[in-house]
Write a structure and sequence with these properties.
Length: 253
């Protein structure tokens, strides 16, 4: 594919229209608290929540030891391979987070001292934006369980301040990935790649789970990222400037 075609296929416009036109072959939505229905042919490859947790915990114990980029990829893809087969979620009542309008809600659905990860369930109202934010010392496997969203990943470039430092300094940011989330789609981020993500819900809203793993005994606080400037050069590459705004979510929307 030549460069011009690639740019056309990766344009924001196509992604946005993809929110409305995404193929009906996508996995079925998961409704928390509802068991998936087995058919005469079996479970169609789906697994239940308990099986997911048991297999994911057992399968990642050794992999968690390797904190390198490739080690975290192996860890996340092991979780993702199981998460993509999920057919059910525990019942959960998500609560407002951040006072946004349209709203973002979330709640914990799994935490266990013997497991390396926690699982959060989140929902977004139609058109809601959950602004860009980082995950210091952590990786995340996101699974969309219903609806549609555009997820964008970013990375800092150059000598960016650390996100837990209180600073007004601006720094370079690149968009490293952009895709349409729909049921069954997985998005993974590691400490070192795509570590910042931003969600924009489609016209019918979106829901999903974040399976998050921290590596530090004393976790560093995350920060929202405000994009303060964007410049597209003649080659069609867009470079961004951003600054950390701590937990002040409304500054980052
Ligand atoms: Fe996140």
């Amino acid at each position: 594919m030549d460069r011009r075609k690639f740019l056309a296929y990766s344009s924001a416009g196509l992604l946005a229209s993809g929110l409305a036109r995404a193929a009906s072959a996508a996995a079925r939505p998961i409704v928390p608290g509802q068991q998936f229905a087995s058919t005469a042919e079996g479970n169609n490859g789906l697994i239940g929540w308990d099986e997911f947790i048991n297999r994911a915990v057992a399968g990642t114990k050794m992999l968690k030891e390797d904190r390198s980029q490739s080690g975290q990829d192996a860890y996340l893809y092991t979780i993702g391979a199981l998460a993509s087969r999920l057919g059910e979620l525990p019942d959960v009542a998500p609560r407002d987070f951040g006072g946004l309008d349209p709203a973002y809600e979330l709640n914990m659905i799994f935490r266990d001292a013997g497991a390396p990860f926690i699982v959060l369930y989140w929902t977004m109202e139609p058109g809601a934006i959950f602004p860009a934010h980082c995950h210091p010392g952590a990786n995340v496997c996101t699974l969309c369980t219903s609806g549609r969203a555009i997820i964008r990943n970013f990375e800092t470039v150059g000598s960016a301040p650390r996100c837990w430092e209180s600073t007004e300094d601006e720094f370079g940011v690149i968009e490293s990935r952009r895709e349409v989330l729909r049921p069954g789609v997985i998005n993974t981020i590691t400490e070192f790649r795509n570590n910042i993500h931003r969600f924009e819900a489609g016209p019918k809203g979106v829901a999903g789970i974040d399976i998050t793993t921290g590596y530090d005994e004393q976790p560093k606080p995350f920060s929202f990222l405000k994009i303060v400037n964007e410049v597209t050069n003649p080659n069609g590459e867009t470079n961004y400037t951003g600054r950390w705004v701590g937990k002040d979510i409304k500054q980052a929307v």
